[in-house]
Amino acid sequence: MKVVILGTAWPYRGGLAAFNERIAREYQSHGHEVEIVTFTLQYPSFLFPGKTQYSDEPAPEGLKITRMLNAVNPFSWIATGRYIRKQRPDLLITKFWLPFMAPALGTVNRVAKRKGLRRVSILDNLVPHEKRPGDRLFANYFVRSVDGMVAMSRSVLADADLFDPKKRKPRTFCPHPLYDHYGAAMPVEEARKAIGLPTEGRYVLFFGFIRDYKGLDLLLKAMADERLEKMGVKLLVAGEFYNDAKPYHDLIARLDIGSRVALHTDFIPDSEVNRYFCAADIVAQPYNNVGGLPEIVPDGKVGFVVEPDAQQIADALVRYYTEDWQARLTEGCREEKKKYAWDKMTEAIDKL
User: Fold this and answer.
1) How far is CA 301 from the centre of its chain?
2) What does the alpha-carbon distance between residue 180 and residue 13 come to, in Å, rounded to a whole number?
3) What is the pTM of this model?
4) Is 120 in contact with 145 (CB distance < 8 Å)?
5) Which of 124, 149, 171, 292 has the highest Cβ tally under 10 A?
6) Gap between the Cα atoms of 285 and 208, Å rounded
7) Contact (Cβ atoms closer than 8 angstroms) between residue 201 and residue 234
8) What is the DSSP string of 109-135?
9) Do strands 33-41 and 2-6 pair parallel, antiparallel, or not at all (unpaired)?
């Protein structure tokens, strides 16, 4: 097939770019011709909450990436749609994550339409974590522009019924594949040295962009638990603030846990991600709205699932360290991750 992927890619950074580039490589590995069409402007600078949208790393080798879509310029939407239609692809894959992008992406899908083209969207969210006026209208506009949808969580699959209650658009569920491009595992001591941490001690990792819905405040409150303090458990926060950082710094000071919290709050480039995961004993994702996360974390097999409550988070961490869970959960992860291969995502799209 000839496949076009519409969405974020290099020189933009982050998980969206990583996803689109990785699925492009998966299609290439099966002999398909692939092009990624990405943005010349993704977010106007005043709307972007981080320090920069751009990657410092070199362009990925072996991928054709064409920059032409301006998210806020309707003339660009039409030109991009015409360009894609002219390429005569068999499959157009659009990664959808935010209603703000719906006018641009939905218009491109409409203009690109031609006989023989299948337009499929991979859905991160339809109903965003942080709601804004117009979300429902925009998401509906986008859903009407595609021929089918792949939801990466069952909660998002259910949300699709809000926009297509008669189920005219075929849809399926396929969980988010696991990224496998961050390099090899490292010994704990080596990883900690690489990021400037003491080689001894116990570390919990909070990783990713820091937004209020991700619940870092709950994890900080959990870290104030006397049991965790006595066990010498520390928290490693790795990721850029996308909300005001002051309330978090104030909370750390009020809880008097500054000596047990390591803040690495710059963007973590792909080449350094493995250091942070290898430096930690366990990862905490204390989302206020967990969405589909519990679906891929079987409780007691690869981790613990608790309510978004500081006391329950603290109890789970105490349980992890006092009941010797590391070996059991590590083995559970090795087994469970077989379900999340990238070829399962391409198979789901092809079947759809």
Assistant:
1) 22
2) 16
3) 0.81
4) no
5) 149
6) 9
7) yes
8) HHHH--TT-EEEEEES-SS-SS--TTH
9) parallel
